[in-house]
Amino acid sequence: MSLILVLNCGSSSLKFALLEPSNPSTVLSGLAEKLFEDEPRLIVTDGEGKQAGPLPGQGHALAMRGILEALRSRGLLEQVSSVGHRVVHGGERFRQATRITPEVVAQIEACVPLAPLHNPANLEGIRGAMEAFPGLPHVAVFDTAFHQTMPPHAYRYALPEVLYREHGVRRYGFHGTSHQYVTRRAAELLGIPLEHSAFVSAHLGNGCSITAVKGGRSVDTSMGLTPLEGLVMGTRSGDVDPGIHAFLAENLGLSLREVTEVLNKGSGLLGLSGLSNDVRELERAAAEGHTGAGLALEVFCYRLAKYVAAMCVPLGRLDALIFTGGIGENSSLVREKVLGQLGILGFRLEPEQNARTVRGQAGPITAEGSPLALVVPTNEELMIAWETQALLA
Ligand code: ADP
User: Fold this and answer.
1) Is 360 helix (H, G, I), strand (E, B) or coil?
2) pLDDT at site 24
3) Catalytic residue positions?
4) Which pTM was predicted?
5) Is 326 in the pocket of ligand 1 (CB under 6 A)?
6) What are phi and psi of 60, to 5 degrees?
Protein backbone atom coordinates (compact mmCIF):
# COMPACT_ATOMS: atom_id res chain seq x y z
CA MET A 1 0.00 0.00 0.00
CA SER A 2 1.33 3.44 -0.93
CA LEU A 3 0.28 6.07 1.62
CA ILE A 4 0.37 9.86 1.53
CA LEU A 5 1.02 11.87 4.67
CA VAL A 6 -1.04 15.10 4.63
CA LEU A 7 0.07 17.92 6.93
CA ASN A 8 -1.77 21.06 7.99
CA CYS A 9 0.34 23.30 10.21
CA GLY A 10 -0.99 26.10 12.33
CA SER A 11 1.03 28.42 14.55
CA SER A 12 0.64 26.27 17.67
CA SER A 13 -0.72 22.99 16.34
CA LEU A 14 -0.18 20.53 13.53
CA LYS A 15 -2.84 18.25 12.09
CA PHE A 16 -1.90 15.19 10.08
CA ALA A 17 -3.68 12.45 8.17
CA LEU A 18 -2.32 9.34 6.53
CA LEU A 19 -4.33 8.35 3.47
CA GLU A 20 -4.51 5.86 0.70
CA PRO A 21 -5.70 8.11 -2.16
CA SER A 22 -8.22 5.63 -3.56
CA ASN A 23 -9.95 5.37 -0.18
CA PRO A 24 -11.76 8.28 1.50
CA SER A 25 -11.21 7.04 5.08
CA THR A 26 -7.91 7.83 6.79
CA VAL A 27 -5.53 5.08 7.90
CA LEU A 28 -4.31 7.24 10.77
CA SER A 29 -4.82 10.84 11.76
CA GLY A 30 -3.78 13.08 14.58
CA LEU A 31 -3.11 16.40 16.14
CA ALA A 32 0.10 17.71 17.68
CA GLU A 33 -0.96 20.58 19.93
CA LYS A 34 0.28 23.15 22.45
CA LEU A 35 3.51 23.16 20.45
CA PHE A 36 4.99 26.09 22.38
CA GLU A 37 3.58 25.34 25.83
CA ASP A 38 5.14 23.37 28.68
CA GLU A 39 3.77 20.00 27.71
CA PRO A 40 3.25 19.68 23.97
CA ARG A 41 1.40 16.49 23.10
CA LEU A 42 0.40 14.28 20.22
CA ILE A 43 -3.06 12.76 19.91
CA VAL A 44 -3.26 9.93 17.38
CA THR A 45 -6.49 8.39 16.11
CA ASP A 46 -6.36 4.96 14.48
CA GLY A 47 -8.69 1.98 14.10
CA GLU A 48 -8.45 1.35 17.83
CA GLY A 49 -9.40 4.83 18.99
CA LYS A 50 -7.50 7.84 20.33
CA GLN A 51 -4.18 7.79 22.13
CA ALA A 52 -2.47 10.84 23.59
CA GLY A 53 1.20 11.07 24.51
CA PRO A 54 3.89 13.68 25.13
CA LEU A 55 6.03 15.11 22.31
CA PRO A 56 9.84 15.10 22.67
CA GLY A 57 9.90 18.92 22.99
CA GLN A 58 8.53 22.22 21.70
CA GLY A 59 8.05 23.37 18.11
CA HIS A 60 7.07 22.01 14.73
CA ALA A 61 10.27 20.03 14.09
CA LEU A 62 9.85 17.95 17.24
CA ALA A 63 6.14 17.50 16.50
CA MET A 64 7.21 16.01 13.15
CA ARG A 65 9.60 13.72 15.01
CA GLY A 66 6.68 12.58 17.18
CA ILE A 67 4.56 11.86 14.10
CA LEU A 68 7.42 9.91 12.53
CA GLU A 69 7.62 7.76 15.67
CA ALA A 70 3.85 7.23 15.68
CA LEU A 71 4.11 5.92 12.10
CA ARG A 72 7.15 3.80 12.83
CA SER A 73 5.65 2.16 15.93
CA ARG A 74 2.61 1.12 13.89
CA GLY A 75 4.73 -0.33 11.09
CA LEU A 76 3.43 2.32 8.64
CA LEU A 77 6.58 4.32 8.01
CA GLU A 78 7.83 2.22 5.10
CA GLN A 79 4.50 2.62 3.29
CA VAL A 80 4.59 6.43 3.21
CA SER A 81 5.51 7.45 -0.35
CA SER A 82 5.08 11.25 -0.23
CA VAL A 83 4.05 14.21 1.90
CA GLY A 84 1.36 16.76 0.94
CA HIS A 85 1.44 20.11 2.74
CA ARG A 86 -1.48 22.49 3.03
CA VAL A 87 -0.18 26.00 2.36
CA VAL A 88 -2.60 28.87 2.82
CA HIS A 89 -1.29 31.54 0.46
CA GLY A 90 0.41 30.98 -2.86
CA GLY A 91 -0.22 34.49 -4.21
CA GLU A 92 -0.32 34.68 -8.02
CA ARG A 93 2.77 32.52 -8.30
CA PHE A 94 1.16 29.17 -7.57
CA ARG A 95 -1.72 28.13 -9.80
CA GLN A 96 -1.50 24.47 -8.84
CA ALA A 97 0.07 21.98 -6.46
CA THR A 98 3.87 22.20 -6.67
CA ARG A 99 6.75 19.95 -5.68
CA ILE A 100 8.71 21.61 -2.90
CA THR A 101 12.29 22.66 -3.68
CA PRO A 102 14.43 25.31 -1.95
CA GLU A 103 13.24 27.77 -4.61
CA VAL A 104 9.58 26.97 -3.90
CA VAL A 105 10.21 27.48 -0.17
CA ALA A 106 11.64 30.92 -0.99
CA GLN A 107 8.55 31.74 -3.10
CA ILE A 108 6.21 30.68 -0.28
CA GLU A 109 8.24 32.94 1.96
CA ALA A 110 7.73 35.77 -0.49
CA CYS A 111 3.96 35.32 0.05
CA VAL A 112 4.26 35.85 3.84
CA PRO A 113 3.13 39.52 3.68
CA LEU A 114 -0.14 38.26 2.14
CA ALA A 115 -0.73 35.73 4.96
CA PRO A 116 1.39 36.79 7.94
CA LEU A 117 -0.49 34.51 10.34
CA HIS A 118 -0.55 31.37 8.21
CA ASN A 119 2.37 31.05 5.80
CA PRO A 120 5.12 31.22 8.49
CA ALA A 121 3.51 28.28 10.33
CA ASN A 122 3.13 26.37 7.05
CA LEU A 123 6.83 26.94 6.35
CA GLU A 124 7.78 25.70 9.83
CA GLY A 125 5.87 22.52 9.09
CA ILE A 126 7.54 22.11 5.70
CA ARG A 127 11.02 22.53 7.19
CA GLY A 128 10.28 20.11 10.05
CA ALA A 129 8.79 17.51 7.71
CA MET A 130 11.65 17.74 5.20
CA GLU A 131 14.04 17.09 8.07
CA ALA A 132 12.00 14.18 9.43
CA PHE A 133 11.26 12.66 5.98
CA PRO A 134 14.28 13.63 3.88
CA GLY A 135 13.95 10.82 1.37
CA LEU A 136 10.34 11.55 0.32
CA PRO A 137 8.94 13.98 -2.24
CA HIS A 138 7.08 16.90 -0.59
CA VAL A 139 4.27 18.75 -2.36
CA ALA A 140 2.67 22.10 -1.47
CA VAL A 141 -1.09 22.35 -2.06
CA PHE A 142 -2.31 25.94 -1.85
CA ASP A 143 -5.68 27.19 -0.53
CA THR A 144 -5.54 29.99 -3.08
CA ALA A 145 -4.46 28.02 -6.17
CA PHE A 146 -7.92 26.81 -7.20
CA HIS A 147 -9.10 30.44 -7.47
CA GLN A 148 -6.30 31.49 -9.81
CA THR A 149 -8.68 30.80 -12.71
CA MET A 150 -10.88 33.78 -11.73
CA PRO A 151 -11.03 36.44 -14.44
CA PRO A 152 -9.71 39.97 -13.66
CA HIS A 153 -13.21 41.44 -13.39
CA ALA A 154 -13.81 39.04 -10.46
CA TYR A 155 -10.47 39.37 -8.71
CA ARG A 156 -9.64 43.05 -9.12
CA TYR A 157 -10.72 45.63 -6.55
CA ALA A 158 -11.76 49.05 -7.81
CA LEU A 159 -8.58 50.53 -6.37
CA PRO A 160 -5.66 52.36 -7.98
CA GLU A 161 -3.92 50.02 -10.40
CA VAL A 162 -0.53 50.52 -8.78
CA LEU A 163 -1.74 48.77 -5.61
CA TYR A 164 -2.37 45.65 -7.65
CA ARG A 165 0.69 45.85 -9.85
CA GLU A 166 3.27 46.66 -7.22
CA HIS A 167 1.73 45.24 -4.04
CA GLY A 168 -0.48 42.37 -5.18
CA VAL A 169 -3.65 43.94 -3.75
CA ARG A 170 -6.41 41.83 -5.33
CA ARG A 171 -8.88 39.13 -4.37
CA TYR A 172 -7.24 35.68 -4.01
CA GLY A 173 -9.89 33.50 -2.33
CA PHE A 174 -9.33 30.60 0.08
CA HIS A 175 -10.76 27.16 0.93
CA GLY A 176 -9.76 26.15 -2.61
CA THR A 177 -9.19 22.47 -1.80
CA SER A 178 -12.62 22.18 -0.22
CA HIS A 179 -14.48 23.91 -3.08
CA GLN A 180 -12.56 21.81 -5.59
CA TYR A 181 -13.29 18.57 -3.74
CA VAL A 182 -17.03 19.08 -3.22
CA THR A 183 -17.67 20.26 -6.78
CA ARG A 184 -15.83 17.21 -8.15
CA ARG A 185 -17.86 14.95 -5.86
CA ALA A 186 -21.10 16.70 -6.83
CA ALA A 187 -20.38 16.21 -10.55
CA GLU A 188 -19.67 12.54 -9.82
CA LEU A 189 -22.84 12.09 -7.74
CA LEU A 190 -24.98 13.76 -10.42
CA GLY A 191 -23.28 11.98 -13.32
CA ILE A 192 -22.37 15.27 -15.04
CA PRO A 193 -18.97 15.65 -16.77
CA LEU A 194 -17.00 18.12 -14.64
CA GLU A 195 -16.12 20.19 -17.74
CA HIS A 196 -19.82 20.91 -18.31
CA SER A 197 -20.86 21.45 -14.69
CA ALA A 198 -21.93 24.67 -12.97
CA PHE A 199 -22.02 24.82 -9.18
CA VAL A 200 -22.23 27.29 -6.34
CA SER A 201 -20.29 25.82 -3.43
CA ALA A 202 -20.82 27.15 0.12
CA HIS A 203 -18.11 26.06 2.58
CA LEU A 204 -19.47 26.88 6.03
CA GLY A 205 -17.09 26.01 8.87
CA ASN A 206 -15.37 28.30 11.36
CA GLY A 207 -14.36 30.25 8.26
CA CYS A 208 -17.02 30.56 5.55
CA SER A 209 -16.71 31.18 1.83
CA ILE A 210 -18.77 30.66 -1.30
CA THR A 211 -17.46 29.99 -4.80
CA ALA A 212 -18.91 29.88 -8.31
CA VAL A 213 -17.35 26.89 -10.10
CA LYS A 214 -17.88 26.55 -13.84
CA GLY A 215 -16.51 23.55 -15.70
CA GLY A 216 -14.47 22.59 -12.62
CA ARG A 217 -12.79 26.03 -12.43
CA SER A 218 -13.34 28.77 -9.88
CA VAL A 219 -14.80 31.87 -11.58
CA ASP A 220 -15.62 33.93 -8.49
CA THR A 221 -15.38 33.60 -4.73
CA SER A 222 -16.35 35.58 -1.67
CA MET A 223 -13.01 35.76 0.21
CA GLY A 224 -10.52 38.36 -0.92
CA LEU A 225 -7.00 39.56 -0.24
CA THR A 226 -7.45 37.94 3.17
CA PRO A 227 -9.99 35.42 4.50
CA LEU A 228 -11.94 38.28 6.11
CA GLU A 229 -14.07 39.29 3.12
CA GLY A 230 -17.50 37.94 2.24
CA LEU A 231 -19.81 35.83 4.36
CA VAL A 232 -20.48 36.21 8.06
CA MET A 233 -18.23 33.68 9.87
CA GLY A 234 -17.77 32.33 13.40
CA THR A 235 -15.74 35.28 14.66
CA ARG A 236 -15.01 37.20 11.41
CA SER A 237 -17.24 39.99 10.19
CA GLY A 238 -17.12 39.25 6.47
CA ASP A 239 -18.07 42.30 4.34
CA VAL A 240 -18.14 45.64 6.11
CA ASP A 241 -17.89 49.20 4.86
CA PRO A 242 -14.12 49.82 4.52
CA GLY A 243 -14.84 53.23 6.07
CA ILE A 244 -15.33 51.40 9.36
CA HIS A 245 -11.57 51.45 10.01
CA ALA A 246 -11.41 55.24 10.03
CA PHE A 247 -14.62 55.49 12.03
CA LEU A 248 -13.35 53.18 14.77
CA ALA A 249 -9.93 54.86 14.83
CA GLU A 250 -11.30 58.40 15.00
CA ASN A 251 -14.24 57.84 17.33
CA LEU A 252 -13.07 55.03 19.59
CA GLY A 253 -9.32 55.61 19.33
CA LEU A 254 -8.67 52.02 18.17
CA SER A 255 -5.33 51.23 16.54
CA LEU A 256 -5.14 49.40 13.23
CA ARG A 257 -4.14 46.25 15.09
CA GLU A 258 -7.18 46.57 17.37
CA VAL A 259 -9.57 47.09 14.47
CA THR A 260 -8.13 44.00 12.77
CA GLU A 261 -8.56 42.05 16.00
CA VAL A 262 -12.22 43.11 16.36
CA LEU A 263 -13.02 42.23 12.75
CA ASN A 264 -11.26 38.84 12.87
CA LYS A 265 -11.81 37.59 16.39
CA GLY A 266 -14.69 39.47 17.98
CA SER A 267 -17.22 39.75 15.16
CA GLY A 268 -19.35 37.39 13.06
CA LEU A 269 -21.72 35.05 14.91
CA LEU A 270 -19.86 35.65 18.17
CA GLY A 271 -19.99 39.43 17.94
CA LEU A 272 -23.62 39.60 16.83
CA SER A 273 -24.92 37.13 19.40
CA GLY A 274 -22.67 38.17 22.28
CA LEU A 275 -22.83 34.48 23.11
CA SER A 276 -20.96 32.02 20.89
CA ASN A 277 -19.46 31.35 17.48
CA ASP A 278 -20.87 27.82 17.49
CA VAL A 279 -24.05 27.36 15.46
CA ARG A 280 -25.18 24.46 17.66
CA GLU A 281 -25.20 26.70 20.70
CA LEU A 282 -26.84 29.56 18.84
CA GLU A 283 -29.62 27.28 17.59
CA ARG A 284 -30.34 26.12 21.13
CA ALA A 285 -30.24 29.66 22.56
CA ALA A 286 -32.39 31.11 19.76
CA ALA A 287 -35.00 28.40 20.37
CA GLU A 288 -35.10 29.52 23.99
CA GLY A 289 -35.66 33.11 22.97
CA HIS A 290 -32.11 34.59 23.09
CA THR A 291 -32.48 37.65 20.84
CA GLY A 292 -28.78 37.99 19.96
CA ALA A 293 -28.52 34.34 18.95
CA GLY A 294 -31.59 34.65 16.74
CA LEU A 295 -30.27 37.80 15.09
CA ALA A 296 -26.82 36.25 14.50
CA LEU A 297 -28.40 33.32 12.65
CA GLU A 298 -30.66 35.65 10.62
CA VAL A 299 -27.75 37.85 9.52
CA PHE A 300 -25.60 34.78 8.73
CA CYS A 301 -28.32 33.21 6.55
CA TYR A 302 -29.41 36.43 4.85
CA ARG A 303 -25.84 37.33 3.85
CA LEU A 304 -25.34 33.79 2.59
CA ALA A 305 -28.57 33.84 0.53
CA LYS A 306 -27.55 37.16 -1.07
CA TYR A 307 -24.17 35.67 -1.98
CA VAL A 308 -25.74 32.53 -3.47
CA ALA A 309 -27.74 34.75 -5.82
CA ALA A 310 -24.64 36.81 -6.64
CA MET A 311 -22.57 33.70 -7.41
CA CYS A 312 -25.17 32.57 -9.98
CA VAL A 313 -24.27 35.61 -12.12
CA PRO A 314 -21.01 34.22 -13.59
CA LEU A 315 -22.47 30.73 -14.06
CA GLY A 316 -25.39 31.45 -16.36
CA ARG A 317 -26.99 28.18 -15.25
CA LEU A 318 -26.87 26.16 -12.05
CA ASP A 319 -26.54 22.38 -11.67
CA ALA A 320 -26.58 22.56 -7.89
CA LEU A 321 -26.01 24.69 -4.83
CA ILE A 322 -23.67 22.74 -2.54
CA PHE A 323 -23.56 23.03 1.26
CA THR A 324 -20.43 21.77 3.03
CA GLY A 325 -18.26 22.32 6.16
CA GLY A 326 -19.35 21.77 9.78
CA ILE A 327 -22.34 24.13 9.48
CA GLY A 328 -23.28 23.28 5.88
CA GLU A 329 -23.18 19.53 6.57
CA ASN A 330 -25.00 19.63 9.90
CA SER A 331 -27.27 22.62 10.32
CA SER A 332 -30.58 21.81 8.67
CA LEU A 333 -31.85 25.09 10.17
CA VAL A 334 -29.27 27.21 8.34
CA ARG A 335 -30.00 25.40 5.06
CA GLU A 336 -33.73 25.87 5.54
CA LYS A 337 -33.38 29.58 6.25
CA VAL A 338 -31.08 30.13 3.27
CA LEU A 339 -33.25 28.29 0.76
CA GLY A 340 -36.32 29.99 2.24
CA GLN A 341 -34.87 33.31 1.07
CA LEU A 342 -34.04 32.07 -2.41
CA GLY A 343 -37.60 31.66 -3.70
CA ILE A 344 -36.72 34.24 -6.36
CA LEU A 345 -34.45 31.59 -7.94
CA GLY A 346 -37.16 28.92 -7.55
CA PHE A 347 -35.60 27.04 -4.60
CA ARG A 348 -38.00 24.93 -2.57
CA LEU A 349 -36.81 22.81 0.37
CA GLU A 350 -37.73 19.17 0.92
CA PRO A 351 -38.02 19.41 4.75
CA GLU A 352 -37.74 15.73 5.66
CA GLN A 353 -34.78 15.12 3.42
CA ASN A 354 -33.15 18.27 4.81
CA ALA A 355 -33.69 17.19 8.43
CA ARG A 356 -32.25 13.74 7.71
CA THR A 357 -29.08 14.95 5.99
CA VAL A 358 -26.55 15.45 8.80
CA ARG A 359 -23.27 14.00 10.10
CA GLY A 360 -21.32 13.30 6.99
CA GLN A 361 -24.15 12.31 4.68
CA ALA A 362 -24.42 13.49 1.09
CA GLY A 363 -27.71 14.09 -0.66
CA PRO A 364 -30.28 16.45 -2.15
CA ILE A 365 -32.41 18.61 0.14
CA THR A 366 -34.72 20.28 -2.38
CA ALA A 367 -38.20 19.39 -3.60
CA GLU A 368 -39.02 18.12 -7.06
CA GLY A 369 -39.09 20.93 -9.64
CA SER A 370 -36.79 23.14 -7.54
CA PRO A 371 -33.23 23.92 -8.60
CA LEU A 372 -31.07 21.37 -6.83
CA ALA A 373 -29.38 21.99 -3.47
CA LEU A 374 -27.06 19.26 -2.25
CA VAL A 375 -25.13 18.52 0.90
CA VAL A 376 -21.66 17.17 0.10
CA PRO A 377 -19.28 16.45 3.02
CA THR A 378 -15.89 17.94 2.35
CA ASN A 379 -12.59 16.08 2.64
CA GLU A 380 -9.70 18.51 2.29
CA GLU A 381 -7.10 15.93 3.35
CA LEU A 382 -8.19 13.57 0.59
CA MET A 383 -8.09 16.37 -1.99
CA ILE A 384 -4.53 17.23 -0.88
CA ALA A 385 -3.60 13.54 -1.20
CA TRP A 386 -5.12 13.44 -4.72
CA GLU A 387 -3.27 16.58 -5.76
CA THR A 388 -0.01 15.21 -4.34
CA GLN A 389 -0.46 11.90 -6.11
CA ALA A 390 -1.46 13.51 -9.42
CA LEU A 391 1.55 15.81 -9.42
CA LEU A 392 4.04 13.07 -8.63
CA ALA A 393 2.54 10.70 -11.20
P1 ADP B 1 -13.22 24.26 10.51
O2 ADP B 1 -13.53 25.39 9.61
O3 ADP B 1 -12.41 24.64 11.71
O4 ADP B 1 -12.74 23.00 9.79
P5 ADP B 1 -15.75 22.87 10.75
O6 ADP B 1 -15.93 22.75 9.28
O7 ADP B 1 -15.59 21.62 11.54
O8 ADP B 1 -14.63 23.87 11.17
O9 ADP B 1 -17.04 23.65 11.32
C10 ADP B 1 -17.14 23.98 12.66
C11 ADP B 1 -18.49 24.61 12.95
O12 ADP B 1 -19.55 23.75 12.48
C13 ADP B 1 -18.78 24.76 14.44
O14 ADP B 1 -18.28 25.96 14.94
C15 ADP B 1 -20.28 24.73 14.48
O16 ADP B 1 -20.76 26.06 14.34
C17 ADP B 1 -20.70 23.97 13.25
N18 ADP B 1 -21.34 22.67 13.57
C19 ADP B 1 -20.76 21.49 13.83
N20 ADP B 1 -21.67 20.55 14.09
C21 ADP B 1 -22.88 21.14 14.02
C22 ADP B 1 -24.23 20.72 14.20
N23 ADP B 1 -24.53 19.46 14.51
N24 ADP B 1 -25.21 21.63 14.01
C25 ADP B 1 -24.92 22.90 13.70
N26 ADP B 1 -23.68 23.37 13.51
C27 ADP B 1 -22.66 22.51 13.68
Assistant:
1) coil
2) 83
3) 143
4) 0.96
5) yes
6) -70, -35
